[in-house]
Amino acid sequence: MGNWLPLTYNAPFSSNLSLAVIMSDNAPPRDFQSLPLQQPLLQNLKDLGYKQLTEIQAAALPAIVSGKDVIGQAKTGSGKTVAFGLGVLHKLKVERFRVQSLVLCPTRELADQVARELRKLARAIHNIKILTLCGGMPFGPQIGSLKHGAHIVVGTPGRIEDHLRKGNLDLSEVHTLVLDEADRMLDMGFQAVLDQILAELPQERQTLLFSATYPKTIDALATRVLRDPIKVEVTTAHTESTIEQKYYRVENNEQRPTALYQLLANYTPSSAVVFCNTKKETDEAAQSLKSAGFAALALHGDMEQKDRDRTLALFANGSASILVATDVAARGLDIEELPMVVNYHLSRDPEVHTHRVGRTGRAGQKGLALTLVSKKEIYKVERLEEMLQQPITLQELPEPPKGFAPPRPTMSTLQIDGGKKQKVRAGDVVGALTGEGGIDGKQIGKIQVFDFSTFVAVERPVAKKALNKLGNGKIKGRNFRSRIVGV
Ligand code: ADP
Ligand code: MG
After folding, report:
1. Does the domain at residues 8-234 carry the CATH identifier 3.40.50.300?
2. pLDDT per residue over 105-142, tens digit each?
3. In testing the pocket of ligand 1, which one of 81, 210, 213 has its CB within 8 Å of the most ligand atoms?
4. Of the ligands numbered here, which is closest to the C-alpha atom of 154?
């Protein structure tokens, strides 16, 4: 990744929280090489091209490496995984083949992301075994993997607790516990399950808690679970400077689909996420956009994993331009440049609102955050004004421009029925698509290889040609079925 924005400590919005910001007398380190980490880890960071620490890493890593309990609050995309990942790996004793670290994440997607990042960081140290244990996956193979053992377990609370209860998982030697996206885990109702897991962990351990927001419920959890923690908070200054926020008046809920259309037709973002409070609204908004001709997709927690994977892949690779999502579902989304977000309803929780808005305008890009507000929601606006310490003005919806037609996405996606388990790699796919009778490498976009399928984006006009080429050729000496999946 490229440059990191200058960040400031302590959100202007959180002045009511008492925060102990560390390193009062020492400037935070900016360079990984200045950290007291094992040499192979440092070398690997160099190889990965990670040079500068992000703010949260700079602020949290010294405390993490010194073995302190740490609460880290920073927005999505700020590099929290590397922060706790390095802490976990630095402490790990490879020769001791027991579960030494447990990382809990709210969803399978996030757990997979975290495990992927950990494997990247761990590749310099031989034989580190990282196991993911998530719901929605078959039980049997997980039991098998557990029998083989692991150093680090990454998973979702429900499934971890299942394995504990059935006696498949021994956590008695865990010395580091990570609660990633802790706020989301509580939102998803994992409190009781977390407590059950905590009861199985040694008291003597290091606990690291990460969260994008810091509501009272998290404070309560932290007080119970962490010991003498250091709290590190990093908030991007650009929430205020480069994100433009606008609030639009709607009469009632019935008007929202039309209002959404009018906003998209006026601002014509190349892509946008529309945030909804409920699954029902998600479906409603996505449906109305589709009928209006937008390449829109819905994403919510009730979807089957394979549908979620496909939806996220299509949006991330430019085959769909609008993603309509609930907060929980949108968590797994790792998108660098999002020009616009729309709040279909204003969130009840001002912190959630801030978090949603923070998804746009990343990486120094300008962002636009639009919010629909009805009369019944004025109380939420007042609450937000109070938190922001700023007045909010509601404006009238713009008229849609005449002769507007929703833009088609630039890419199309081919889904190949083969993935990691069939040893398919991105390079093989490029090979199969290019060459004699194929398409140009430049016309290929993002390639995502999952366990049993692969999604490859190609420029829309050459999608058929690409599909034909795949149909006539082989990948890894095999013929995989493939198709165009679009919106
Ligand atoms: P968060 O958990 O805070 O949402 P992630 O840990 O997922 O963020 O990191 C977001 C992205 O930033 C990842 O793609 C990661 O590889 C990258 N990243 C993390 N730290 C650095 C760094 N120091 N330099 C460059 N890229 C980084
Ligand atoms: Mg994260």
Report:
1. yes
2. 988 888 999 999 999 999 988 899 999 999 888 999 99
3. 81
4. 2
